[in-house]
Amino acid sequence: MMHALSFHAPKQIRRIEIPEPAAPGPDEARVRVHRVGICGTDISGYLGKMPLFSYPRIPGHELGVEVLAVGRDVVNVKPGDRCSVEPYINDPASPASHRGKPNCCEKLQVLGVHIDGGLRPEFNLPARKLHVSGKLSFEQLALVETLAIGRHAVQRSALAKGETALIIGAGPIGLATLEFVKLAGATPIMLDVNTPRLNFCREAMAVTRILSPTATLENDLRDVNDGLLPDVVFDATGNSASMSRAFGLIAHGGRLVFVGIAPDEVSFRHAVFHRSEGTLLCTRNALPDDFTSIIRLIEEGRIDTRPWITHRTAFDDLVEVFPSYTLPETGVIKAMVEITKVR
Q1: Own/partner pairs for 190-196, CB < 8 Å, 24+ apart?
Q2: How far is CA 213 from CA 167, 218, 269, 333, in A?
Q3: Residue 343: which pLDDT band, with cuts at 50, 70 and 90?
Q4: CB atoms within 10 A of CB 244
Q5: Quick check: 234 and 168 in contact, CB under 8 A?
Q6: Does domain 150-282 have CATH number 3.40.50.720?
Q7: Would you call 332 exposed, middle or buried from its count of C-beta atoms within 10 A (0-12, 13-18, 19+)?
Q8: What is the H or E stretch that residue 17 is in?
Q9: CB 119 within 8 A of CB 14
Q10: Domain edges within the chain
């Protein structure tokens, strides 16, 4: 037997005992979890604000793992490999998967959301969901999934060099989006209610156009953007009021991209969005290519992961520490959990 951490119900995190994983199946790998990143999905799941979350659930989908054993048909990884985990377990036979969209397969099960995730020492998963790096640390590998969300969002938006992009929400997903807005050669504008996070964007991410929400937000945007509204707006808040307001913040001919997921209704005035001939895009999870591309970018030094991790904790301390991660004053950008094999 070994120990895991579980969200038993909203605002209830427990240490539980679970059996050792069985021998991996023909297409599976058994992995040892070394690092788990805590993200907005985990926070929302804990608070009961994540509409896709089910209970009880072992959370954790931002994972840096080591391969321990593989099934007889596995050829892409071997014991000893260090990997990032693509936690979106799709049905390869589904229509969406055949169209190259395994990230939104009809039968999709996300580790730590629909099925148990990585806040446990070891588990089995389809080996095709492992992405190997011979250079990255386990912490860097655990950051890949967060960054993949941002890359996929920017890819969906078709953001072009020279365009401007407003990113609403300076949490980890907004910051991941920021990384790829900058790599696309576009000009970012960051908007958040949290002053420490905006300071982080200015000081650690070199963003010069910073805004807080006001009653005159449209004018504020024009003031920092040469009199224009942004070409693309990414809303990474998961807040229905913010997402509803975002329809009126894009330039004519612009695009609005919902990266966060709201638990309740989003509404807009059709005439406002129609007049601008706006395009609304939703972006869910990420694609396999996002993982391989991001691993390469980190290995090449084009993405600096050093500013990201602001908090670290041991597995044994997480039950006591986790509630503090939900508080804005804690100043968490990315918390990283070190997993040890506890029996």
Answers
A1: 191/166, 191/167, 191/217, 192/168, 194/170, 194/328, 196/328, 196/331
A2: 12, 10, 20, 20
A3: very low
A4: 16
A5: yes
A6: yes
A7: buried
A8: strand 12-18
A9: no
A10: 2-132+306-338, 150-282
Whether the CB-CB separation of 170 and 239 falls below 8 Å is answered with: no
Give 215-220 contacts, CB < 8 A, sequence gap 24+.
217/191, 217/245, 217/249, 218/248, 218/249
The sign one gets for the Cα dihedral 281, 112, 5, 34 is negative
The CATH superfamily of 2-132+306-338 is Medium-chain alcohol dehydrogenases, catalytic domain (3.90.180.10)
**Strands 82-85 and 62-70, sheet pairing:** antiparallel
0.70 exceeded by pTM: yes
Q: Are 181 and 165 in contact (CB under 8 A)?
A: yes
Task: Round to whole Å and give the CA distance between 71 and 27.
Answer: 5
Q: What is the mean pLDDT of residues 45-51?
A: 88
Neighbouring-strand partners of residue 312: 336
